[in-house]
Amino acid sequence: VCLTGCSRDVLVKIDQICHKNSIKFFTGDVFGYHGFMFADLGEHEFVEEKTKVAKVSSSVEDGPDTKKAKIDSSETTMVKK
Fold first, then answer.
1. The pTM is what?
2. What's the rounded Cα separation, in Å, for the pair 64 and 6?
3. Cα 20–22–25 angle (5° rounding)?
4. pLDDT (tens digit, 9 = 90+) per residue, 48-61?
5. Is the separation of the CB atoms in 45 and 81 below 8 Å?
6. Tens of pLDDT along 8-52?
């Protein structure tokens, strides 16, 4: 359910009904330069994209940067949560 332009009382009442029935609820509005967005997704699954971090062996390189993990932005994995 998506709502916009409703009073706070209506938003709260519809959200409570949606939450009780496991229905996803979204609302938002804009007032000039200010606005808000709210989502009640209840129990849900999503996938997050994680960048792989490559560890560098200290025997290959010397110096202060050898102990830092290097990030390869071309390799990512998808993690379901």
1. 0.56
2. 57
3. 95
4. 888 877 665 555 55
5. yes
6. 999 999 999 999 999 999 999 999 999 999 999 888 787 888 887
Residue 76 class from Cβ within 10 Å (0-12 exposed, 13-18 middle, 19+ buried)?
exposed
The CA–CA distances, whole Å, from 55 to 59, 61, 67, 70, 73 equal 12, 12, 8, 6, 14
* CA proximity to 40, closest of 55, 59, 20: 20
Contact 42, 26 (CB under 8 A): no
Closest CA to 71 of 58, 55, 47, 59: 55
**Which amino acid makes up residue 47?**
V
Token pair listed for 78: 């998808």
